[in-house]
Amino acid sequence: MSEMVSHTIEIKMNKTMRRYLDQCFGYNRYCWNKMLAENNQRQEEKKKYKFSDLSKFLNETQQEWESEMPSAIRVSSYKHLYNTFKHFWKGIITYPKFKKKKTSQQFFKYSVEDGKRIIWNEDYTKFKINCGRKFQFPQEYRWFKLTEHIGFNGNIKEICFFKKAGRYFANFQIQLNQARGQTTARDIVGIDLGIKTYATLSDETIYNLPKKKLKKMEKKIKFYQKIMSRKYKQDQAQSNKYLKTKAKFNKLWWKITCLRKEFLHQTTTDICRKFKTIVVETLKPLNFRKNKKMAKHIQHLCWGEFIRILKYKCASHGNNFIQADLFYPSTQLCNCCGHRFEGINKLKLQDRIYKCPKCGNEEDRDINAAKNLKLYGSRMLAGLQPSWRTWES
Hints:
The chain is an alpha+beta fold.
């Protein structure tokens, strides 16, 4: 089966199109709340019913103004509610709640049959939806202009329109026609994740977050949060100044998340192209966050997201992905002779240089740890025990 990928692109909108999409978001929320209220009422009355009856109820109780809205929104809203209840029945999430205009994420989506319902212009920067009676935008809102080209060749299966920080986006679910190109690299690399340097490779390459930009933005975030805390009114309608500050806060926070995502994707792609086998340490960020002084920094580093992205990119590009054992002491071992610091002599966070008392090796602690992870991966590939206990065997 061919691979499914998603690509999110911002849409250039005018005022009329924004107003119409906002109406679609509101209608999606209205359908969700209407079906959920009906489901709650039937449960209270202890009526026997099928879950598909909620979709029939939504169509039967349709009002005149709903005929102007796309019918596909009703279908996608029902599917979303059904999938949410599935997760609830399995015990994954809590009972579904009613959606609110200001707090809920605004979106709607619909399925497309192999991209046949989408009409593109010549340079593939604009598209319009042509679904006949089932789903049809008014003529003046039909063309959507993208800020960039879609980066994948394949059939579009689903499009999700959503709004984030006052900007509008389209998420395309694409089924690729051909498998992605496999990496031609043959080398093995170990990656040590840290706070001072984000990712240190065994070949002494270092990747770092754009800390200066993030610090400036975080200062503004604190400033907006102070204003919002002063102007917040509990159990009352918020003032216009509060709402304007919140909009600025959301835009700035969206920029920070985009900066982090861009760094993570560029770094992981670069590593996957250069190396065939990638070895990463196993981390538990929740345990690290128990330290109150370091909790905020560790949370903003997104180590778990970095490993998740690296893992799926390795699978799609044909790389070998190896995750070291949770208790493998990559920082405490010497990559030359295998000596291990134990007990009182263990390296602390302030010790930035590894000095081996046995062989005299002096090296940066992150590079030393990355080299140990590389040795771990090479022994795993050779079918040997990678533990420090069997170093000499």
